[in-house]
Amino acid sequence: MSNARDPRFSRPGHPPATITEFEGVRSLHLGTSWVQGAMRLARPDAIELEYVQMMMMWTLFLPEPSRIVQLGLGSAALTKFCYQRFPQAQVTAAELNPNVIAICHAHFGLPPNDARLDVREMDALDFVLDAANHGTVDVLQVDLYDEEARGPVLDTPEFYAACAACLKDGGIMTANVFGDFSNYDKNLDAMREAFDAVVWLPEVHDANIVVVAFKDAPQIDFAVLYERAADIKRRYNLPAKNWVNGLKEWMRDHLA
């Protein structure tokens, strides 16, 4: 199933958004075979892809954020999930491609904007550079593919410094770093410059590595984190114990 020629999702000036369906999973593409997001039709409100689930790792540290921002909408899995499952939070998404926004409304269950949900057609860089957003965000989720998926679209020290500036004290950024191997060190170095502490989990799903960047380095107590992971599993059905295991492994490998 594909909608390559649907004019609603192929406005000129941006890659067209198309969908395929296979074994009950609808996938989003931007004019290429790369999967930019996915949704299981039987569970449209769940987060289907493992690395996208890992982008929710901030829940281990911030159980009740008041503002969550997504840079890069993808198939709207994170934006939808945060909007539905964190009713106390304002949820904002910045997405440059109007075709992606349109297809998420039409085929991926993205609700219309309201008092708590604000999906904006805009450049993520403009969002983080806007001083009005500085110091206002608890959680920043960054997943900025382009249609070629060679690496994050925005990966400069200036970009990550602006991301850090958007966070409140104690705020957390999760970011998907993927693509060519040279991208990893470039992005991690830039994040380390901007954030107090940066950790990442083992690679999953086509070389996606999820990085967690803390505005202020947290006190890590694994007994507490495993308790929180059990609560996250109960409450949101996310595999949070795996995330804590990954953090433990990272600390063993990098802080020894």
TrEMBL record:
Keywords: Polyamine biosynthesis. It comes from the Bacteria. SUPFAM superfamilies: S-adenosyl-L-methionine-dependent methyltransferases (SSF53335). InterPro entries: SAM-dependent_MTases_sf. Signal peptide: none annotated. It holds the Pfam family Spermine_synth. The keyword Transferase does not apply. This is Spermidine synthase.
